[in-house]
Amino acid sequence: MTDPKEWQIGSTLADDGTRREYIVHLVPPRFTARVVRVDPFEQQPIETEGEADVVNGFVYQIDRRTLLCEIEWTDKMPDADERDFAAHWLGEADRAWDRLRWHFLRWKALSPVQDMASRIDLDISGCRSWSDYTEAFCSENDRSDGELVKRVRHLADVVSTGEVPVLVGMLHAADYSRVADEIGGDDIWRRLSRTCGEHAEAAALAIMRQ
């Protein structure tokens, strides 16, 4: 199985205010590829993507509406004679992007996750990836001067044993691992062993995000 640490999906906010999504290969050959949504008929970036170079360099079509472009190679820039090398690794990026996004979308759709998000008053409806979720969680906690984490702590004291791992997973996925460890305590693995069904799946997917 591919090490989940090998790939990461991330996003940034460009100077023009548009959101840009990337997939990064974290081990050699290291590279970053921008994920761009395009019009399926004109094959040009849709308006919400802002400026995107879908002509120069290596461009890889994921499907009719999505492609990889603006590739930045950290270790070695492939030349014109190494198109097979580039195509292979961009194909791997395609498969990793699909797998990682599926994990997130599955996690987001699970009823325990939706229930916990509602109970801590965190809107994740617009999140499309783990990085979106992390950004949403951190932004809300900053906006509320730490009230979001306080709500999570309070909820962890009143939910069932099987629900605590869902909250712990949500914290880990938001890069609040220290708080997650405090809430989980020394018996978190015992709690996990008592968690089943969608609650167990929610906890596992969130932990895999790490």
Summarize this entry quickly.
This protein has 210 residues and is α+β, with helices and mostly antiparallel strands. It contains 8 helices and 5 strands. It is elongated and about 60 Å long.
Kindly list the characteristics that best describe this protein.
46% helix, five-stranded antiparallel β-sheet, alpha+beta, 210 residues, elongated
Describe this structure in words.
The protein has helices spanning 83-109, 111-119, 130-143, 147-156, 164-173, 177-184, 188-193, 197-209; strands spanning 7-13, 19-25, 31-37, 60-63, 66-73. The chain is built from eight helices and five strands, in the order βββββαααααααα. The longest helix is centred in the middle third of the chain and has 27 residues, at 83-109. With 210 residues, the chain is α+β, with helices and mostly antiparallel strands. Strands 1-2-3-5-4 form a five-stranded antiparallel sheet. The protein is elongated, with a radius of gyration of 19 Å. The two termini are 16 Å apart.
